[in-house]
Amino acid sequence: MRRRQSARVSSIGVTETRRAVEKALDWLFREQPTEDYGIDAHAEVVDGEMVRGRLLALQIKSGLSWFRESGPGGWWFRPDTEHVQYWMNHSLPVVVVLYHPETERCYWQLVNRKTLVETSTGGWKLLMPEAQVLDETAVAPLHEAAEGDAYVLRIRDLQLARPWMAMLAGGRRLVIDIEEWVNKSSGRGAISLGVDNEDGRGPEELASWGVFLGMSSYAEVVPKLFAWADVSLHDETYDEAEHDQYEADCAIYDEGERFVTADYTEWRRGRVQDGLHPYTDDGEIGYWRLELTLNELGRSFLVVDGFATNGGRQLTV
What we know:
A hairpin with a 5-residue loop joins strand 8 (about 115-120) and strand 9 (about 125-130). The chain folds into 2 domains: about 5-145, Trna Endonuclease, Chain: A, domain 1 (3-Layer(aba) Sandwich); about 150-310, no CATH class. Strands 10, 11, 12, 13, 16 and 17 form a 6-stranded antiparallel sheet that branches. It starts with a helix and ends in a 7-residue tail after the last helix. The protein is built from 8 helices and 17 strands. By secondary structure, the protein is α+β, with helices and mostly antiparallel strands.
């Protein structure tokens, strides 16, 4: 019995994909039985020696025939509708891998709402970029993809934040305290979320995180971390800090009498900062206190969450 050439090429594609996953990515590769329709293997993320329990489902195709249709910066891959439906409903993120027998390279693309393109005939096509080779450059984007679909992750983040949204909707004041290590290029710092009980004892902590923002600005990143709320300066904290600094800069005490070297309004005019900023900075650590106000996204999510939980029509928040 002769072995078909197509079977040989297909086997080589799986072998080369395994080699790329295990050698270039340094992850685990598990070939799947043929009964798993549309999925040839699983790749499991490994961080150092830590197996992460995060998987990608791989559909592997081999041969020059898959590279005949040129696309912008790569090639068009045209799956059938049944495969697309299967992939989009799969419990794992799905990656298509095309093996080119002449270049001996594996090219990859995620299957999701952004990458799938519906054709005028009602079919589907997927752009396989020539730049997306299954090598060391694929580690970061595939690691991120293995964490889950971005849409699902965003909804999950809102679900986790729902108790805090409910507090704001119920009239509680929530504040963010930040300690920013000013002179660290890593953007190292600590963020905590708490309830401002306005009793002078400081916020009642709800959660805290260590952060490494690199060169990113806290003023830009923090509002994205709390997308369900508007972020502003905590007025009382910043007013108190400004008065303390004014006293240090401009107040002189002599024999029990107080003299000032500048009018407070004029002094403050020269110090006003736009946007979010620390209320004090000792040269090593910048201290921030920001306040959250439930925004349209937060209010809308509470309505949707109420419907998903209880059913029926819900009142707006």
